[in-house]
Structures are given as structure tokens and as C-alpha cells.
Amino acid sequence: MFTPDGESFMAGGGLVALDQAAPGTLDGCRQAQAQGRVTAVARAQLAAGSRMCVSGADGATTLVTLRQVSSAHAVLDLTVWPERQL
Questions:
Q1: What tens digit of pLDDT does each residue of 41-70 get?
Q2: Which letter, b or e, does each residue of 5-41 get, where b requires 16 or more Cβ atoms within 10 Å of its Cβ?
Q3: In what order do the strands lie in the sheet with 74-81?
Q4: Which of 35, 4, 5 lies closest to 18, judged by CA?
Q5: What pTM was computed for the model?
């Protein structure tokens, strides 16, 4: 979700922005997360096509792909890997 001021995308469980060369897979997310997580990514770093991996409190890993980002809303694609099913 975006912070109240709309300047950052945040996640309580931690997230990491994927670079363009990183695979958008569970293993790609795990490798990126092993290098370090943050709680927010600045809106200035986000554009259509940006990808982030989000860690949920329940152990799930989610790949978030931004399709559109505006001041009023964001259109996202989500791929969720539940921890219990892995």
C-alpha cells in the first residue's frame, strides 16, 4: 500500500525492489530478499513495469508488478506464493 502522503509503497513484513534483470519467480524473490529488505520504497523509484517482492506476516511471498501508477491509484499484478504450500 502507499503511505498516507503517497510518497512511498510500504509493507510491514518487508519488501525489496527487483532490478530488471532479476527473474520474477519465487527463487528470484528469495535471492533478492536475502540481500536485504526495507519497509518502504520511494514512489520516485517506481514506474510502470517496476517489480517488488513483499514478505507477508504469514510467511507468504508476493511478487507485485506495477502496471500503472498515478497520484490517485495504482494498478498492480500480484503473484502470491503461500508459505504453507511451498
A1: 887 888 899 999 998 878 889 999 999 987
A2: eeebbbbeebbbbbeeebeeeeebbeebbeeeeeeeb
A3: 38-42, 8-18, 51-55, 61-69, 74-81
A4: 35
A5: 0.81
